[in-house]
Each structure stands twice: as structure tokens, then as C-alpha cells.
Amino acid sequence: MTSDDSVIKSGLEIVSEFVDSLSDGDSIDSQTLASIRELHKSGKLTRTRLLQSLRDLREAFYFYDTNSKIVASFQTQILSLGAIFDRFVQVQSTSLQTVLDKISDDIGRFYQMLHPSENVDKVRLRIVGEEGIEFEYYFHGKPTYPPLKYLSESHLNSLGVVLFLASAKLSSIAKANF
Q: Considering Cα of 81, then 87, then 91, then 93, what sign does the dihedral take?
């Protein structure tokens, strides 16, 4: 037996052990895995095929390793962006509620001017859920929303008018301070 034959034989033994240890869930592509198994079972694992199979395995491992690092990088970015988004939503909601509270003071006062004898008071805007804004008011001393529940169409129109007036007032104050 020549030294090349012993290298090939030890290479074949290593490949045999490797092939026997592989499972379908391993991270080399299924075509390469099937090709190696087929050659191994048929006994046609020649030196050339062995070298080509090892090159294919090396290439598959390289791509797997490279792609694993990319995936890990993206997963880190996704977690970071998720944390940034959660913090942004929190700050946005707080800022929006602050503006709504400023407008709400005027909305309640304007509504009382239009309907002084009604049992509706403390009319204000509040955040509902993650992306909604709704009127809230006290009807006979109990907090109530949405306004469609008890208010007539003319009262709902009044809410629209007072919202516009309060927004215009806030806008003019902002322009004056700018």
C-alpha cells in the first residue's frame, strides 16, 4: 500500500465516520449530504470525489458560518430596534397626552359655555389603546366614553366645534411663542 493509498484510506475512514454521524437536521445542504451518503454506500467514493465532497462541505460550512454571523447580527439589531420602538411609543404617548391635557382644559370650558345646563362636565381627550384618541366626559357624575353613547348629534357637533376652537387656540399660542 502506497502512502497516497493510506492517506485516501484514512480520509475515507474519516468521511465514513463523518457521514455516519450526520443527521438530516445538520447544517449542510441536503443535496451535498445526500450525495456524500450515496457515494459512501455505493463504495464509489474515489479520491477525486472525496476531495470534491470535502470542498463542497468546506464551502457549505463557510456559508453556514457566515450566514450564522449575519443572522446573529440581525437578531441583535431586531432586539435593539424593538427596545427603541417601545421607548419611543412610551415617550410619544406621554407627550401626546400632555398636549391633549392642554387642549382638554379649553374643550371642557368651551363645551360648558355652549351647554351650561347639561349634565355633561369634565369633557376631555384621552388616549385609547396604542393609537386612538377619544372624548371622555362625565355624564351625571360618571365617567363615560365614547360620546355616541349618550350625546345627541347636535352635542356631538358641538364637541367637534370646541375641539377645533381649542386646537386653534393652542396653535396660535404655539405660533406666538415661536
A: positive
* 88 or 9, higher pLDDT: 88
Residue 138 class from Cβ within 10 Å (0-12 exposed, 13-18 middle, 19+ buried)? middle
For the segment 157-167, the average pLDDT, to the nearest whole number, is 89
Q: Give the DSSP per-residue string, the chain.
A: --HHHHHHHHHHHHHHHHHHH--TTSSS-HHHHHHHHHHHHHT---HHHHHHHHHHHHHHHHHHHHHHHHHHHHHHHHHHHHHHHHHHHHHHHHHHHHHHHHHHHHHHHHHHHH-TTSSEEEEEEEEETTTEEEEEEEETTEEE--GGGT--HHHHHHHHHHHHHHHHHHHHHHHHH-
Q: Which CATH superfamily is domain 88-177 in?
A: P-loop containing nucleotide triphosphate hydrolases (3.40.50.300)
* Predicted structure pTM score: 0.51
Query: Where in the chain do CATH 3.40.50.300 domains reside?
Result: 88-177
> Mind listing the pLDDT tens digit for each residue in 61-105?
888 889 999 999 999 999 999 999 999 988 988 888 888 888 888
